[in-house]
Amino acid sequence: MDDQKLIQKYLPLSESTYYILLSLVEPLHGYGIMQKTQQASNDSVKLGPGTLYGALSKLEKEDLISMTLAEDRRKNYQLTPKGKRVLYLEIKRLEVLVNNGAAILDRLLP
Amino acid sequence: MENAALNIGNSLVVNKFYMVWQDEDEENWLREMSLQGWHLTGVSCGFKYYFIKGDPKNYYYRLDYINPFKADKGEYINFFRDMGWTYIGDVFNGWQYFRTENEVEKGKIAEIYTDRNSKIEKNLRIQRILLAVLFLNLVVGTSNFLKGLERFHGINNTMSLFSLLNLACVGLLLYAMVKIWRRVHRLKSRI
Fold it and tell me: Which of A110, B21, B109, B151 could bond B179 through an S-S bridge, CB–CB 3.0 to 4.6 Å?
């Protein structure tokens, strides 16, 4: 799929999805994703099991992440090449948003 | 609606009935029970609750709704367990009862759904099953009504009674669907 199609289909990502994909640059299980997200976002994004469970199965179905069974039979997830590309495009998109905001930030102060 | 409570020593059985849109009331009631030292150990048929006496605890209870024919439910339960939730039981129609493993600190609330999309999806799963049951009721009700007509060249009383019951079910189901739909709408209309 070319970038334009990926952008149309997946962006913008929800905050939860963004953090889930961000945590999955390395293989990780459900509990690890929850912890990593909470740390990275300074507790502002929490992932409950219901939310995470649904998101993981959806992302797997869309082939943005893939699952491997760890030795302890726990499921580990990791970004696929497609998932990497989507996350890359989202970060680039967010960069533009943040830069535009930063340019006028001082005019918003009282 | 609460009618009977059976108390034998350290255990308690309560019959209580909640409608499909009252899941949050049910969660709150279960938490109140735990605050009084009655901890849920099981549910059956959707109106029987089993409790055991212990120290009062600030547990949070959450009801999830999944497709009742879901494959690999063990894996789903383990996933919740790994993330600090105790599985208590389920009702045949798809409701799953979870409780926080430990007491929740004061001022904190424990949730299994933490974003808007997933809350909406849970409600849409409920909506889909309601729609399926509604459809079933319409089919059965219509066929009962027609059978009643043809058998006695007029309306057979038993059969028309059945289709009347079906009609009542359809009404209730529609009401439930409106309730759930409004909840989804509320979730969607937040900025």
Answer: B21
